[in-house]
Amino acid sequence: HIAHPVQTLREHATSFEAALSVCLAAPAPRAVHTLRTESRRLEAQIVLLEALRGLPPYRKAAGKALRQIAKIRRAAGRVRDLDVQGKLLQQHGKRKAVAVSAPHEAETHVTPEQRQDDLEQMIAARQHRREEAAAELVALIQQRQARVSAALEKLLAALHPAHSLRLSAPELVRIADREFRKNRALKRKQPSEEAL
Fold it and tell me: Which residues of the chain have pLDDT under 70?
């Protein structure tokens, strides 16, 4: 099996830009999830290229593209987190005869109806926050879509001389393994929470 890292980058860039357009039109949960996923894939492919030797100068363009992608990914991540939380709350609310009875409930005299009302209020508040976060994401996409596209085009143009670069599967595994070990070593050197 042969890998084509620059061509794969182009494919991920195309998928990311398509996800931007879909999310801009309607930031539904699936669209937001796809946008976030595609941004991660694109970032990972750019990072993989950093591990390759012999590429034309492209790092400045890669840095600009990564910064633009990260801003959108973070905004999509906020919406996605609210989607997941809302889904969990709704699933909890659908359970019949929830056998959650904490000792403090008997002391405070919380009725099942009050618990259901509280849950519905939490769901409504989460939905409101989700709508606000989705509106912020759409505004960010509107503001940055042209910049992201331009940054990706500059990156792909810088890498064009290497568009036919091929790596065998063993070569790709060695590179990925080297990067993993390097990153794992860096993580181990960071102090733990307890040490701080």
Answer: 95-108, 183-196
Q: What pLDDT does residue 90 have?
A: 84
Res 184: pLDDT: 60
Tell me the residue length of the chain: 196
Of 155, 145, 170, residue with least CA distance to 23: 145
Structure tokens at 195: 């040490």
Please name the amino acid found at residue 69.
I
Q: Which residue's entry shows tokens 């939905």? A: 127
Question: In angstroms, rounded to a whole number, what is the distance separating the alpha carbons of residues 137 and 71?
Answer: 10
Cα separation, 115 vs 102, in Å, equals: 12
121-136 pLDDT per residue, tens? 898 999 999 999 999 9
CA dist., res. 173 & res. 151, Å (int): 28
Give CA–CA dist 131/120, Å, rounded: 16
> Residue 95: its pLDDT value, please?
66
Angle, alpha carbons 22-44-170 (nearest 5°): 130
String of b and e for 98-133 (b: at least 16 CB within 10 Å)?
Answer: eeeeeeeeeeeeeeeeeeeeeeeeebeebeebbeeb
Q: How far apart are CA 49 and CA 30, in angstroms?
A: 29
Q: How far apart (Å, rounded) are the C-alpha atoms in residues 72 and 17?
A: 11
Q: Which residues contact 113 (CB under 8 A, 6 or more apart)?
A: none
